[in-house]
Structure formats: structure tokens, C-alpha cells
């Protein structure tokens, strides 16, 4: 390989200048920053005299940018606010923008802290943005071109809405025609044009121009979207203790207009539709801090999860839902033919839908705040309401009504809170299924006879409870409530309220404590303000209640003990072991109640009212738990019973399959028809101001005395007259059923009216509750002034008539039907007042028929049917009552009881087999009546005034006309006769409290044997006729016995009064 050597020679001239930018001589390229800096330096070197101007321009640019970013929108807001206030708004209206900016390229308007104030309301928006998408093309579906976004919207109403109307009406009282014209010209009312024919063409031109403008506006904005974050709407004033507040966290809505599809499109212009979706919607009553009134009523102490809501009453809450608003834009009236149908009304609806966790709370306190808000914002117009004229041809149509509808598409909870003796009470309703709604139609025009309001409520499967220890109250499949209110044109004319309630398969629980519970609710709901004749308006309540397949459940435990499961372990206890309660179940296929309430006079002395109840196809049942000793006995008898009916021998009642049968349920009787009429005459007791001693009525009330000196006989009686007609009656004679009915009587009308939890003794021991010797200490509330009118005595008259009674003497049988008893009529009458109670029970002849299946000869077949007859029965009772020396809150004491039992003739013709069947029934009946293994004593928390039972004077008089017993067999007969039997028994009130009695009677026994039993049957009938002839003489003997003991009874009564007063 060869080597080549090459030598290069450079010729350099040092006098030449060196160029460093030459790419051949400089191997590295300068950076961009270096090039820019060099150029800047060169520019400054060449323009040294312009440097101060450049600095000024640079500073101004910085200032301008800062101004555009921070101050330009604020300056624009101030300028825009001034222009709007100066040229467009009235003096009383104020508007202010903290900042306002507009972008024409993006089509956006942004503002902050908008304050808009008028004489009636105030609007505040913290941040707002309007985006106009003018580049969007119109499609078949309305496109959203305008979007409005608002953050923290606050609207406050603080002035009466009717204040201007009131002032206008007051200024024009002397010119009613001008008033009517002003009202008709007001567009917010009806929009009717009242101009003459000369200006009709001009109006038509203007309306066409307005219609063209609206049409162009609809084409420009087919739909508008509005989104609000954290908004609230409130109404209140510093003269009101509480205001109304509506809050929501998110609201997304769309506003659009469509052609009027419901009504005639050639008449109306269009339909406005506003769809809104909300989240966390709450309606509350909140306290106004600047309230300058005298007193502020404290809301019910409802427990809340948030401490900040302690003074707020939340009326409505829903986590998710929708609101729909629909309104027609009215057009002009057209001429109609004579036979044509009237034009449909304009549509104006407001619909609210709840989709998640809706809660509604209300009560007397909330209703009083609602009334105060209504009276402030919509004060009563004390004038004759003018009739709204119908628009003529060419005039604008008017709205007749506005409709509001609330749909509940989610499980809902409704609570009603009220106070009684400083204690919170609650009615809790659960609606587990969706579909319930509230529909209301409010008038927007006045007819010649006034205007009407219609309210319709539909509730699906409600479960209603109370906060009592026995929580169960009501449940049903469906409830329909319809309310129609007619208001006259004159504010103080008669108003008519028609209320109709229809229930399907309701189940109602009733204890006597419910009466006190609802009475406390009515007392809290009633107004404590004395009535004022200047604000009095007469009205009539027409209430009708109808129930289909109704069931009433009344606890019938001895001593009114009730097994009340705790709220926390209710579900656990129902799964493991049900409550051990006995119930009397009364099922009815149809119940109709009519209750008119007329209030036509101002503070009348008495108010009459009538209640009519009609019950169809009633079935009485006994519900007992499985652990009851009688359960399996009744189950065995019920499964092996056979009885006579008009359609043959049956094993169950006709109505047994009409109602759902639960465990431990036994049929006891049925009635096809019951009618009840209750006539009431009540004395009114309106609230009074005790400080107004100058009023005669207040002086009269104070003259009755205080709690220590008042006696109820100083007041007139409230009158109750009850008439009940029942029949025909088909009854199973169960001893346990009659025993439970007696306990129901004691639990409702006797000593044991207050029920007690079965776990009450344990709670008393665990919580160391002090039980007073006299529970009256807990009843009397010294904080309230004593009003004697609340202790007005009652005089009641009750009449009950049972027709065509058929009683089946039930016992265990498979082949033969049970004995049957007939009674044509049973009457009961009772009168009671402050001093005494008198009652009487009357039976028409009672016949009992007993059959056997013994095979006999043809001539002796008549012996297979035995007969027992009671010619009549009268039971009279007389209770003597006293209220001397007792406080008004205590019940009246019964110090004497007189009872008289009068039996007619008892006759019988039976065989030994038939007697055996009858004794089998009596044994079973006696076992059910006298069973006392699970006897419950009275609660220690009861009225300790039961010592009166030891001092009560008891008198019993018993008389029997005669007994004629014929024991008949084939060829044999035994006749036993008892001519007269009377008994007198009373207790002697001494240290030993002995009981004295006296029994007299005569017994005759006749024994005879013949070959024919018919002879003895005829003899028996003859004896019966003789005994009936002697019955009048025996009645005279009974009366003479009464006169002999009258002096002795009177002396014992006097001694008893003496002992009671000294005790």
C-alpha cells in the first residue's frame, strides 16, 4: 500500500477583519435567544431617542391587561346598573352588578353578585353565565341555543302580594265600574281587552305584530336550558315569627314552547312547557332573627340529625325529583254555533314528581305558621268579589283554574306532630309503594255564585302508627279523599266544605287511649285566640266516610294489658314470637258514615249535629294467640261444628269467605245490616281572655269557681242520643267470646280505660319510676288556667234493638247439628247522667231446639226434637253516682248498684239424650267463661279510688215465674214444676261487710207412666197455660217485696253517704 503525502498552504492577511458569523470560519451556530437579543440591542442602539415612549407603551399595555382582567367587568357592571336604573327601572326598583362582561365571539354573558330589589321581593345571584349558541342549526327537535347557569340563587319575598290591590280598591270604593275595568285590564288576572269598537282594528294590528315577534323569538330560542346550583326561595317579614324557605342543591331545567296540542290550535297561540329536575329539595319553616313581635311560639321538639336545624321545622324533603310546568298562551275568542260544544278550558298545570326518599311533616304548629304567612301575603279582601265576565268574540280567552299535582313515585313518610301537656306526640304514616298523588284545582275566575276549589288525594297502602306504647292504628290498601270547597262571592257568606273519604280493605285498631290522643290533636289544632265577630265566616262541613271490607280490631285482654313490642325490636319479635294479644275483630263488607257539621252562628249556645252509620254484611270474629289455653279447644270445636241454616246444614258462616282469615281467628256471628243514628247537642266552649273581666261571659265563667270549689252540676248537660238497629243476627254462642266482650266493656267504659304495657312492671323496676298513690297527680296540669267548661257533664241515652236472633249452641259434633236458639227481639236501653245510670235489657220469648238421631217408632218420631222455652227476661240496673268532694279531673264514683232480674216461665220437653247434648254445651260454655288460669290483675298505675268498691252498696233482686220441666221418653215422662222463685241479696255495710240473701220457692215433682207420650205433652201444655195465667199475681208479689225493702235500702244509703263524706 502506498502512502500519499499532501501539504496545504494558507495565505492569511492579518489586515482583514474577522467575521465570526461566517459559517466556514465558526464551526458553532448561535441560539435563537442570542439572535433576538442582538437584534434588540441593535434596535436600541439605533433608536435611543424612542426608548421612553416604548417603556410608557409597555406599562400602559400591562395596565390595560390588568384592567381587562380585574376591573373591566366591574366597571361595566357599574355602568350597566346605572343605565338600567336611570332609563328602564322605576324609582322603587334597584339593580346592581358587581361585575358584568360579554363576549360576542363565544356568545357568552358573565356577571357576578347581581342584586335586584323591588318593593315586594329581592333577588341575589352570586355567579351567572348566559351562553347564546347562535351558530346551532334548528332541527326537528327543539335545540338548546341559550344556556343559563346560575350559582347560589336567592329569592326573598317580603311584601304582601295583595297590598296594591287593597290600596286600589280602597281608593276606588265609590266607583265600582272603574274597579272592574282596572281588574279586567290587569294582565296578570285574565288579560281581557275592554276597549271599544273604535280601537279594535288598532288592537288587532298590535296583536299581529306581537304575535310575529313571539314567533321570531320562538325560532331564535326553540329551547332554553337553565341550571342552578345551591338556590333558595324564602318568604317572610320581620313582623312574622317564622318564614317559609325552599332550598335545593341542584336544579336543571329546560324551557320550551310547542303548538297547543290539547286545545284547538287555531285559537290558542302556543303551550309553554318548563321541565325541571331537582336534587335535595327541602321546604322549611325557619325562625326570623329580626322578629320584633312580643312572643314566638316554639316549634315541636323534633329530633334532628343536624344541630344547625334545631330551630327549623322541615315540611317537605325529597332527594331527587322533577317539576313540570305547562301553560297555554291564550288566543282570541271565535264565534261558535248554537249547537256546538263549548271550547275546552285553557291548560295551566304545575306537576311535582318525587323519585327518591320523600318525607312530609305537618301539624298544628306548622298550620298556624302557614295561616300567619297566608294572612300576611294574601290578606282577606273584605268586599264583594266581582264576577269575571266571559270574553266576547275577538277578546282574549281567560284562565278558569290552575291545577297542582304531586306524584309520589318512591317510598314516602308522612308525620304529624302535635303537643299535649308539654309532650310531643306523633302520627307516623309510611307509604311503602309508589303511585300516591295529591291533586288540587284552584279557581282563577269568579262565577255568579262564587268559586270552587277541588282537592283529590289518593294514598296507596298506607301504614299509620302512633307514638303510644301500642303503636298500631290503621292500614289499608288504598284511600281516596275528595274535598270540594265552595266559596261565596261575599267573604262572610256560608262556605260549604264537602269531604268524601273512600277506603279499600282498611284495618283499624282502637283502644280508649286513642280517643284522648285525637282529642289532644284537636285541642292543639284549634285556635287559642278568642273568636272575633269581624272575622267570623259561617261554614258547613259535610263529611262522608265509606269503607269496603273494613276490619276493626279491639284489644280484649283482661285489665287492659297489651303486649306492646318496642320500636327497636319490633321486627325481631315478629319473626321470633308474635305479640300475645287477644282481639275482637269486627269485619264489614261496607261501612257508610255521614257526619254534617253546621257552624252557622257566631258562638252559639248549642250546636246540633247528627251522625248516621250504615253497616252491611258484618262478621264478628275472635282472634286469640296460639299460646292461649282456649286456642286448641276453640280450634277443635270450630273444625267439628255443624249447624242449621235456611239453606241446610253448614259448617261455616256465609260471610266467612268474604274476609281474609288470619291465624287464631274464629268466626262468632254475622249480621246483614246495622243502622246507627247518633244525635248530639253540644255546648260551645270558645277560648276566652280571662283578663277581660269587663265581659259578662268571662264573669260568668269565673263565677263557677276554681278547681277546688267547682262542681259539674253548675253547667248544662251535653246531650247524646244513640239508636242502634241490628238484625237479623246469626250468632255462635261461645263463652270465651262473651267473656272477651265483657272485658272490652270494662276497657272502654269501665275502670281499665288506660291500657298498660305487659312489660310495665319491669320498666318500673329497671328505671325506678315513682308510682303515685293517686295518678291524678300526673293528670292535673297546673301550668294551664282552670276552665270549668271543659268538665261539662254528659247525658247519654242509648237504645239498641236486635231482631230475629238465631243462636247456635256450639259444641264438638261431627254428625248431628248443634242445638239452635231463636229470639224474636232483644232490646237494650240505658240513660246516664251525672247522678245516676239506669239500664234495662228485655228479651222476647227464647226457644231452644235440640235434635237427636235415636231411631224410634213412627208414632214417637216427634220425640227426636226437644224444646226449651223462656217466656221472657227483663234485667234492670240502677247505678247511683256521686262527684261530691272530688276534683273535676277525676271520674264520677259509683256508690250503689241495684239490679233486678225477672224471668218468665221456663218450660221444657226433652229426652235424656237431648239433655246430655245441652249439658255438653253448658259444660263447654262454663269452661270458657270461668277459665281463670291466666287471670291478670290490675296495673299498679291505676286510679287508687277503687276503695269505693268495698263501700259500694249492692242490691240484687231475682224472680222466676215458674219452671215446667218434662223429661220424656218412649212410654215414660217426668214432670218437675217450680211454682215461684224469688231471691233478694244485698251487702250490709258494717265492719264485716256481710252479704244477706233470701231464697223462696216451691217444687212439685210428678211422675207418670203411660204408653203414649202425647198425653204428657198435652198435660205439659195445660200446665204452661195455667202458669201464664198466674204470672200477673206473681208480678204483684214482686212489687210488694220491693216496697217492703225500700225503707231498709234508704237507711243503708244514708249511712253510706255519711261514711263516704268522712273518708
From TrEMBL:
One of its GO terms (cellular component) is presynapse. Pfam families: BLTP1_N. The keyword rRNA-binding does not apply. Keywords: Membrane, Transmembrane, Transmembrane helix. Signal peptide: none annotated. One of its GO terms (biological process) is synaptic vesicle endocytosis. Residues 1016-1044 have a biased composition (Acidic residues). Residues 38-939 form the Bridge-like lipid transfer protein family member 1 N-terminal domain. InterPro entries: BLTP1, BLTP1_N. The chain crosses the membrane at residues 51-71. Residues 1014-1046 are annotated as: Disordered. This is Bridge-like lipid transfer protein family member 1 N-terminal domain-containing protein.
